[in-house]
Please model this.
Amino acid sequence: MDKVLELKTKTMFPKKRLDMDYMFSYLLKSSKKYIGRTPDGVRGVVRSLQDGIGFAKHGGKVPVSTGVQELFEKQGYVLRKQVTVEHRTPLATYKHDIHKFFFSNPAAFWDLLWEKTDTTLVTKEEDKRLRAAKLTSSLPKDGSDRYEVAGIEVSDLKLSLEDVKYPK
Model:
């Protein structure tokens, strides 16, 4: 007999993070709260902003790799432990700009995040290929796309927050 998997109904992150006015006010509060910290000291704030922007750019959905698409088509959902949110442009590649704008010019920082944030859900195996290629925090030196170097294809499918499930 097959084991029935019970799933929680929580989402990857609070839906309020899709409200860009809320997220911008979060940025303004954080830039005051964390004043004087290094870019690494505000990484959690920046990641929260990136994830919200990544979903909001696609109307509350996120592009997925072909590996995630296969999982979704097979299961009808994707388990959070099967995927990771990957950023096409790693945060470390524009750390200097974060330090430059986060505290002094939140509006410019916001524009920078909108420009640089392009998230994709990838499988854990695809993420391992990025790590093996040493591209988790850098771009290829030849200017090529890091997903291509790691053999990751982005599909046309976009998943909503509700499509990513958590086991009970």
